[in-house]
Structure formats: structure tokens, C-alpha cells
């Protein structure tokens, strides 16, 4: 049985995964930003809860330290994210002054993963599952903070392009190490809080996205799957930029943690 950290376990896909993994006999470390929600979920699942605002690099670093201090970690699921937001909502910044979706959906998972790599390496075979999206657009490196022409959908899609590119970088780094990393678009417009906030009609259930994500988290068929991008249960291609060595180099240089 595995020990699995699920970020953003207090809602939607994260809650689905936390409940299902617990029912399957795994130890789930649940993370959220709302102390009351984390406390209630951790009590319900009889497990450890971790509170951290992923819009703060310091908080993210502390979360990694707290989880690492527990010892074993077999799977890290980077699930927490900020969605499109309400249509027309203004640009928001993180505690560190980064554009909010860039901070929560990209910088935080990179930092959390990097800081947890020693414990993942010590727990091999281990996995990192990045919950991404098929919705990806090119990154404007001259305006990373999106000070010009901001909109929440583009901000979200840039962050998910970056997360996919990070997945492929890390997979190359980790090849042969016993730690694998994958990225998944769980399903399109699942019935969750972020989709409701944007006002879109749901097109799929959390169950559909949950089953697909669960396969990458614990499925024996994915024990060695590394550096692949999935649309639900099917391997697919991410945005071409995520494979481009020059763009990935620029992204690494722009990733200030
Ligand atoms: N829904 C879809 O159709 C869809 C499609 C493609 C990809 N995805 C991806 O699937 C993943 C799960 O999304 P979901 O649909 O389940 O969304 P959700 O129900 O809105 O859940 C998002 C989770 O992230 C947490 N979160 C947000 N901002 C945070 C912050 N600053 N610090 C810490 N935690 C934070 C939320 O905490 P609170 O509970 O406190 O709000 C919540 O637990 C995301 O990565 C999303 O991009 C979703």
C-alpha cells in the first residue's frame, strides 16, 4: 500500500482521489488551503492533513518540509489549481508578486516536487502525477506576469503549458531513477468548483477524471510510465511548445523559486 500526497484534496477531483485511495487501503496525506476544510477531511479519512497556501512559495516550502518529515512518500499528486475564474475577473497576484495562476498551477508544483524529490527517491518505486490540462497556450516570456491583455483563461492555459513542459524536463532527469512523472488532462469540464465559478456547463463527471487520474497514481500498468501526457486514459501529445528544447530552456530560466 502506498503513501500518497494529494494537493487540493478539499474539493473536486482531489477529494474524489483522497476518498478513493483511502478506500483502496492507501495512506493519503490531504492538503488544502482552508484549515477548516482540511481538518474536516483529515478527520473523516482518519489521516494527516496539511494546510498551505500554494500562492506563497514560503508556505509551499514549509508544506514540503512537513511532508518530508513524515518519511515515506510513494506518490505526489500535484492536483491543486486555480481555474479560469469568473469571466472578466481582474488579474491577481500571489504573495510573492507572481501572476496567481502561474504561481499556484506552475511554480508551486515545481517547488513542491523539487523539495520532495529526496523523499520520493528514498521511497522508490515512486511517482509524481501532475494534473494538467489539454488547454495550453504558448507562454509570452516578455510578459510572464500578463500585465498586458490579461484574461484568466489564457493565464490558466499558460500555467498548464508550463506544467507539461516541467513534466517532460523532470522525466528526462529522473529516467532510470525509480521515480516517474506523468501529466494528465483528467476530463473536460468536470462538475467541480472551478468549472462552476467560470459558469460553464459540466461536460463530464469527476468520476471520469478520477478513474483516469487514479490509473496514473496507483495503476500497476503505469509503474514505469514516465514523461507521458494523458487525455483521460489515453496517451496523447501536449502542446508542441512543451517539447521544444529552446522554450523549455527559457522556461527553466524564468522559473524563479
Ligand atoms: N474541472 C475540470 O474540468 C478540469 C479539467 C482539466 C483539468 N483540471 C484540473 O484538475 C485539477 C483539480 O481541479 P478541480 O476541477 O477538482 O477544481 P476544484 O474543485 O476547484 O479544486 C481545486 C483545488 O485546489 C485548491 N486550491 C486552489 N487555490 C489554492 C491555493 N492558493 N493554495 C492551495 N490550494 C489551492 C482548492 O482549495 P479550496 O477547496 O480551498 O478551494 C481545491 O482544493 C486542477 O489541476 C485542474 O486544473 C480540471
UniProtKB/TrEMBL annotation:
Entry superkingdom: Bacteria
A Pfam family: adh_short
InterPro entries: NAD(P)-bd_dom_sf, SDR_fam
SUPFAM superfamilies: NAD(P)-binding Rossmann-fold domains
GO molecular function: oxidoreductase activity
Keyword annotations: Oxidoreductase
Record family assignment: Belongs to the short-chain dehydrogenases/reductases (SDR) family.
Name of the protein in question: 3-oxoacyl-ACP reductase
